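Figure S7 source data.
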Amino acid sequence: MALYDLVIRNGHTVTEIEQKKQDVGIKDGKIIALGENLEEGERDIDATNKLILPGGIDAHCHIEQKSSSGIMTADDFYSGSVSAAFGGTTTLLPFAAQHRGQSLREVVDDYMACAKPKSVIDYGFHLIISDASDAIIGQELPAMIEDGITSFKIYMTYDNLKLNDYEILNVLAAARREQALVMVHAENHEVIRWITEKLLDQGLGDPKYHAIAHASLAEKEATHRAITLAELLDTPMLIVHVSSEAALTEIRRAQERGLKIYGETCPQYLFLTIDDLDKDGMDGAMFCCSPPPRNKENQEIIWEGLIDGSFSVFSSDHAPYRYDSSGKLSAGPKPTFDKIANGVPGLEIRMPLLFSEGVQKGRMDIHRFIDVTSSIPAKTYGLYPRKGTIAIGSDADVAIWDPDKEVEITADALHDNMDYTPYEGMVSKGWPITVISRGRIVVEDEELKVERGSGVYLKRERSEFAKPLEKFVPEMDPKKNFNAKLI
Ligand code: URP
Ligand code: ZN
Ligand code: ZN
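Tokens for the predicted zinc ion complex:
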């Protein structure tokens, strides 16, 4: 019997820190050897002139999830996971979304039941918490964290999801106690509501006005407020899907002051602009997401933030609603912008487009590419070093990239269940040609090679990223403040 189930030979492995010409020996789903001239395995793959990268971790995606207004995403855990795999991603962290009145256990059980028989790659969950009652936060949440769901998202906008500042403080205090990571959708609800009303009063309901209503100042204010609440209770926080220079500036300021504030950005803020929302007829609806893409100058600044380390995570925020009556046009053929489901697809293009526009065009070092698409998400969400790197003992989750392969992105060519892609016609130089998850070849020769349901659930560890600093603002310091025990 061969020592290895699989050997990938003659390629260059690249991790977040180094690049080496070496073979990868895999046994029972794990990497067990790295070195030159490994002995023959049960199966050998020749990776001459190819790059062997850690499989991607998409740490923000919405799969088989109903939006806050009840619209189901076009992708279920089968099509979503297949699409992710074809784009070089081997781990998904979608949301188990609580709608008000639901118990967290029921929510998690429902999502597990959806994912288990369908996902072709490994997956964990973040919770979305929309009901911050004492029973949920005090009793249910700690049990979920103990079960490996060590991060959750809260919203500062959307009628059916948003928490007020008081509720956010309760959530932060619980996260601090439990060392769970809080992810925040930071937009000021009342600002958006106010501008929306004024626009609609003037009959300005076209998709492009979505970007006016979701002003970058609304994002900046909420980001500032969220960070302030996090600082008050010394609780780490990750601001998701950051779109604007104004919000990025708030994050950088907090980081410069030593706070554990992290930022995530997404393809739509690097590759789309506000002009995309101003397409003929209703076509701009295909680009409506929140926060929206901004202008070209802003796009450059988001790029800088990803390159210089201000952002630590690059996720798709895949929120797939088809351009038909099941999705974007569910409120009728010509809805006003406030009735258009928010979100764009991006699972499959997330890594290739960043590789092409970032690494190939010399903007971004390949190690940084791996950091933001795989290694830092793994560290942030309690999966490292099982996932997010190429090392002995790690899961054999790797993608073999052909750096010269050019692929034109079209809705037809992608593997999700969408009828459009916002990135139609863009050409990606560099594409993952063989994708391996726990030693299983998932994608090869442009074909899916595994069965539905062959991915496994990932019980995640608590992350160092979520560990408090023990550095309170002075008046909140329990040691100095008359022994007051506020948290
Ligand atoms: O527009 C977006 N981003 N839709 C998905 C839901 C969310 O808030 O991330
Ligand atoms: Zn969000
Ligand atoms: Zn999202």
